Amino acid sequence: xxxxxxxxxxxxxxxxxxxxxxxASRLLGNVYGTSNIVWANIIGLILIYLxxxxxxxxxxxxxxxxxxxxxRIILWASFTAGLVPIISRPVLLRAAMAVxxxxxxxxxxxxxxxxxxxxxxxxxxxxxxxxxxxLSIEDTDHAGRVSGKIxxxxxxxxxxxxxxxVLILIPTIGTxxxxxxxxxxxxxxxxxxxxxxxxxxxxxxxxxxITLAGLAFFTLDGPIKxxxxxxxxxxxxxxxIQVIERxxxxxxLLNEGQGIHSVYAPDLTATNGTWDxxxxxxxxxxxxxxxxxxxxxxIGLAAxxxxxxYSEVIGPVPIDGWEIDAEIIEVGRSLFDMTEPNLNPIAADxxxxxxxxxxxxxxxxxxxxxxxxxxxxxxxxxxxxEVRDHLEPNGVxxxxxxxxxxxxxxxxxFSGTMGAVFPxxxxxxxxxxxxxxxxxxxxxxxxxxxxxxxxxxVSKETHPLLVDILHRTIQNLQPTPDSSIIFTDDLAPxxxxxxxxxxxxxxxxxxxxxx
Length: 515
Known about the structure:
Distance between the termini: 63 Å
Strand content: 5-15%
Order of helices and strands: HHHHHHHHHHEEEEEHEHEHEHEHEEHHEH
Number of domains: 2
Number of helices: 18
CATH architecture of the largest domain: 3-Layer(aba) Sandwich
CATH class of the largest domain: Alpha Beta
Structural class: alpha/beta
Shape: elongated
């Protein structure tokens, strides 16, 4: 029984190590986002902590080759892992305010302090495998077999720890309680192992689960964030979802909350934001039948702002909207009145969904980009070729791209990539924002079509927002960059560009312009 329990401990420890790593990304992602910069810091430091643990575990095992110190180390590893969400909670609440107000120093300080919290539990977890090998080897002739079994069990546990928190625990019980789940699971087997070898020591260490449970009960109640006007928050498999209501307007925020993904109010028509400009897409074509919208496809549906605008201004055209996060679709239905009968929301990745669609579209809108989160597979020539293959002969693709006032590299990259697929590309800056709307058309088109369509609509009984948005589009047209950059499925260095833009903006002092 003792030998079998040792193997079970190794398996649970492997599950806990990866479970904590994946859950750490959500703990920090709720405040700092889930960019590859955040991921790189988490993974890099955890590997450093594990390296230290492997080294220490080997030395400690040779010095104290007994089960009692082994299980005591595991108890401290599980206890300190459970402390992470408790200790970090006040830090993260303050950090969330710092991110909201773009206080760079406090943002970075809080981020690093949280990462330091993982040093103790992860290092102690790293000691388990070498220590377990030392305790398991009874005959040096079988040392290789024993080591292989230990590492195989640890890796099998790690596989389970990769999927369980993301797919089951975090969406069900939340990030903090996921930490506690792994902590108490590992603590339980450690206490059992300690009791088999030293019952007195096991009884002495019962203070650990009691203390952890008490601290969790008194500190983990309440919202993850305390943003002004917050009416809803939840954690899905993909995002931390937050809904804010201010001055009667609801806003959908995700993760760190720096971008507004949808807006809604019962009497809201014009958003005065990027979403309005998607209405202009078909009017880059010549006046007449070429501007008729037969079907709309939306990649990045969010809570349905664009689909609502099209339904009200253009009419009840069939709309297919792809949103990878099914929880966001539910939030859209319940809090953003995303109930248009002509809308078909689909919980799927946008590229996969479009590729498997049987329909052709007059307009395909892509609102899935935001610095520094731009899915690389939605930026390539091959992707835009799939878009082209699903467009009508008068079709138009329109995308929303982030930028900074003095860095337009993304605009150049997308102009070059889309220009390799479509005959005409048009660029429109959205005033008073860091957004640019890029249109690409299936036929040769020019700005003069916008002017002609605006004049034609003025003489008809047209929705006033449509005339207004065409006027604003004409006013904010920019020269299309002459770019030779073409992203492909094989080479799309989008993260390098977005990280460079974001870091240059933050550390170059431009962030002060937002306050």
